[in-house]
Amino acid sequence: MRKVFGYILAGLACAFGALAAFVTWAGSRGPEPSRCHGNLVTGSLEGGRRPPYSGENFRAYSLTGYLAGRTFMHSTVAKTVVEAYAQLAREHPDLRFVYGESAWPWGGNFFPHKTHANGTAVDFFVPVRTAAGAVGELPTSPIRLFGYGVSFDKSGQSGGLKIDFAAMALHLQALEKAARANGTSISRVIFDV
């Protein structure tokens, strides 16, 4: 029985590895810009790109989600996100940021999200501080539904963490500045507690 279980685990690991390799390949096609079609709900994406998994002051919400291909975006959006993080690293090197899900490399239906179909929507997790005021990161373990299961009260607290509203404003400003430099803009910000 143990041997069979081992074969099953090895098979699942190989299948996940093959999926990760395919998703990486699908999002690494040449230098041409991405193309989005349709809208956030019923659209699609050609040539999706994604930011690196992590950088000096940021990381993706989940290595599993990253490898599964849930962090692709339109090339201009990905460039904007990376440039915003670079600006923040220069101006506020102590802050840390976490980006979440965005789209498949090809866009389309993106369960459980009702949007994200054309690669122009990105989830960002709120920056947080500890009760002592130290810069922290939102917990994004599977137990916390990769960060999507963390809830805050009316004062912006969740357990020993508090939303860093000043850092959130700096993040939005950096995103808007980078978006304008790349010939685009932020059209909507949805804040979900």
Q: In terms of topology, how is this protein built?
A:
Blueprint: H1 2-26, E1 35-37, E2 44-46, E3 58-60, H2 63-67, H3 75-91, E4 97-99, E5 124-125, E6 128-130, E7 135-136, E8 157-158, E9 161-163, H4 165-181
Parallel strand pairs: 3-4
Antiparallel strand pairs: 1-2, 4-5, 6-7, 6-9, 8-9
Name a few traits of the molecule.
single chain; 193 residues; alpha+beta; four-stranded antiparallel sheet; three-stranded mixed sheet; 9 strands
Report on this model:
Helices cover 33% and strands 12% of the residues. With 193 residues, it is of the alpha+beta class. The chain has a 4-stranded antiparallel β-sheet with strand order 7-6-9-8. The chain has a 3-stranded mixed β-sheet with strand order 3-4-5. It has a two-stranded antiparallel ribbon with strand order 1-2. Helix 3 crosses helix 4. The mean pLDDT is 89.
Shape type: globular
Neighbour order of strands in the largest sheet = 7-6-9-8
> What is the count of DSSP helices, taking H or I runs of 4+ residues?
4
Tell me the radius of gyration. 18 Å
Class per helix and strand makeup: alpha+beta
Which spans of ≥5 residues are poorly predicted at pLDDT below 50?
Answer: none
User: What is the averaged pLDDT score?
Assistant: 89
Order of helices and strands: HEEEHHEEEEEEH
Describe, in short, the structure shown.
The protein has 193 residues and is an alpha+beta fold. It is built from 4 helices and 9 strands, in the order αβββααββββββα.
